[in-house]
Amino acid sequence: MDPQLRSMLDGSGEGLQRHRLPDGRMAIVKRRRAAPGGFFAMEAHGLALLRAAGGLRVPEVLAVREDAIALEDLGHGEAASGAWARAGEALAHQHAHHVERFGLDRDGWCGDSPQANTHLADGHAFFVQCRLLPQACRARDAGLLDARDVSAIETLCARLPELLPPRPPVLLHGDLWTGNLHCAGDGELALLDAAAVHHGWAEAELAMLVLFGEPSRAFFAAYEAAAGIGSDWRRRAPLYNLYHLLNHLNLFGGGYLAQVRGVLREYA
């Protein structure tokens, strides 16, 4: 490893730090002494997969180790003219490449929550076994859900094939809320924080983009045109987002319980 990169990773403190490289470029170091095991290695792997897909821009990984990762600093700016539409087209391009199985070659992280990526051919089984039920059991064991909540989730899981249309697995960012769709210094959009990358349903990615805020309407118009789909995915968004609501319940507490129960009342 380059001595300067090693020195950057060895620095003190937590969180984000900016450094200037010998060639004049800027780098971001993300450091967490108590990071979950394999967290930054998975982020580097996810970024490599997204880069290879040729969709939205992602930062170059400069160095990685157990408690830190050094990344190209993309800067921060205002969206250039047409940037949201180009980002929508780029995400559609990323989602256009189908694979045979859901999951990934390794498990990942959604926030600080472990995210199982067991390879499965059936998308409904993957969403139940690797997404909804692990979060529901974790919340039950922590006293955040009661027996009726868990029973409702199990009922919803049994109904998923009639509620969600079968779709092929595609490469997902996996944690694509608006905060991870970053406007770089050149005015173009880029993807950040890739520890949740896996192969899953494209509609699940779109759904999370409307969970906490929402990108420009031009983004979705361009995505839908490039992907050749309508906007009916929005009707199904709460079902996909139940996973993220359960994850937020587990990570941040009972403030998300009402939203979880709202989805269950509607669909279970």
Describe this entry's structure for a reader.
Strand 8 and strand 9 form a beta hairpin. The strands form four sheets. This protein has a four-stranded antiparallel beta sheet, sandwiched between helices. Strands 5-6 form a two-stranded antiparallel sheet. Strands 7-10 form a two-stranded antiparallel sheet. The chain contains nine helices and ten strands. It is an alpha+beta fold and 268 residues long. Helix 4 packs parallel to helix 8 (233-252) and helix 8 runs antiparallel to helix 9. The radius of gyration is 19 Å and the shape is globular. The protein has two domains: 3-72, Phosphorylase Kinase, domain 1, CATH 3.30.200.20; 83-267, Aminoglycoside 3'-phosphotransferase, Chain: A, domain 2, CATH 3.90.1200. The model has no long low-confidence stretch (mean pLDDT 94).
Summary tags:
2 domains; globular; 15% strand; Aminoglycoside 3'-phosphotransferase, Chain: A, domain 2; two-stranded antiparallel sheet; alpha+beta; 45% helix; 4-stranded antiparallel sheet; Phosphorylase Kinase, domain 1; 268 residues; 10 strands; 9 helices
Mean pLDDT: 94
Tally of separate helices: 9
Helices and strands: which structural class?
A: alpha+beta
Strand order, main sheet: write it out.
1-2-4-3
The first-level CATH class of the largest domain is given as: Alpha Beta
Enter the CATH topology name of the largest domain: Aminoglycoside 3'-phosphotransferase, Chain: A, domain 2
> Uncertain regions: pLDDT < 50 for 5+ in a row?
none
Head-to-tail CA distance between termini: 52 Å
How much of the residues is beta strand, in percent?
Answer: 5-15%
Q: Which architecture of the largest domain would the CATH scheme give at its second level? A: Alpha-Beta Complex
For this structure, the quaternary state is: single chain
Sketch the major β-sheet.
Answer: 4 strands, antiparallel
Domain count: the total is: 2
The helix-strand sequence is HEEHEEHEEHHEEEEHHHH
Please give the number of β-strands. 10
Described by the principal axes of the CA atoms, the overall outline is: globular
